[in-house]
Model the fold of this input.
Amino acid sequence: MLESYRVLKVMLQENGLELVVEGEAAYFNYFWLRDNCETSWESSTKERTFDILAEPDNLSPNSAHIKGDFLEIIWSDNKHSRYALHWLKRWHLGENHGDLAVRSRKAWYGNHYANMARFDYTEVMGAPNRVADWAEALLDEGIALIQGMPNSEQALQSLCEQFGAVRPSFSGYAFDIFSKAQPENLAYTSKALELHTDLPAEELAPGIQFLHCRVNDAEGGQSLFVDANAVANALQENYPEYFRILTEYEVPFRYTTNHQDVRSKQRIIELDPNNGEVSGVNFSQHLADIFDFPQRDMDLFYPAFRKFGHMLQDPRYLMTFRLNAGECIVFDNQRIAHGRASYLEGSGARHLRGCYVERGELRSTYRVLRAQYPLATDTVAWPQINEPVQAEVGRGAQL
Done:
């Protein structure tokens, strides 16, 4: 195992150096090393102040050696740099910064309501470690319930700001969902809402959605939620060609009112470049524009689109519950499809208030808070022998 290896030799080569470790050699480019010297960064802003463009084309060290747990380099301009071996090891292994926010998503199904992560409003407003736990639940499962919400507009904004700034959409900074006499959106009626993700007509659809139930005395109106990632994974397993089509075709979406005409193209299923997992879904029959593929391609696309839509409606995946006053359902809009059963007009008041925060804000908050309130981890460097290890000039080096 790499943890038991020792750095035995430093080999200077033409464009970089090798740390010769038992069983393998770890190579590092000179420009990369110089660019990432610990003195290259401004300490307070954490921004790089070093200008790699000002270095000569033949940048090289005069010497390099291992001292304790560090690689120390003296450059040709007599600049001294040092690099922690455990830090070099991470980059050699491709672990890089070790992004805490890149986590494996946990699929859930129609019986998930009893097990859904729940947090108290007062708790997350006063305990950063619980905000980290809440963010982790959203990264892993894509959904969580906040209970004990005050019945005010400020409560929702304050809750959102635990992750970051409220993200405006073409509906403004927040939106209120209740039946209107002249609705510009089906959400503002008592009719059923089919399963969908919000606003795929925007070039970048909203990330984390908050829906605060302020009043719900109406008859009916059950909330519907589906882990669309789990459905997409099942589609890939059982209908791989349909899955391929929905990850490749760019589908037009459009939202129009008397003063808006918002358009974009999205893939129905998005893949995470970090790990290849399904990372997002864009699905809304209400906002789907006229599909503009060649007509022969429709022969391929519609069966895939319809199969995925039918699977979203399968009771195996569909979680149904009543959202009560004082609760706020928070979910990843690019993973979780949601909808609503119809409710009886005039049977009682029903008022939800919603807003969005970017996914990037959630990840940023999680990285910071989980670093402050960490889970147990171990960092193992390349163990060293007591004597300093001096550099040797490798074959082909021009130093």
Observations:
- Residues 113-357 form a domain with the Double-stranded beta-helix fold (CATH 3.60.130.10).
- The CA atoms of residues 25 and 334 lie 42 Å apart.
- The first helix runs from residue 30 to 35.
- The radius of gyration is 27 Å.
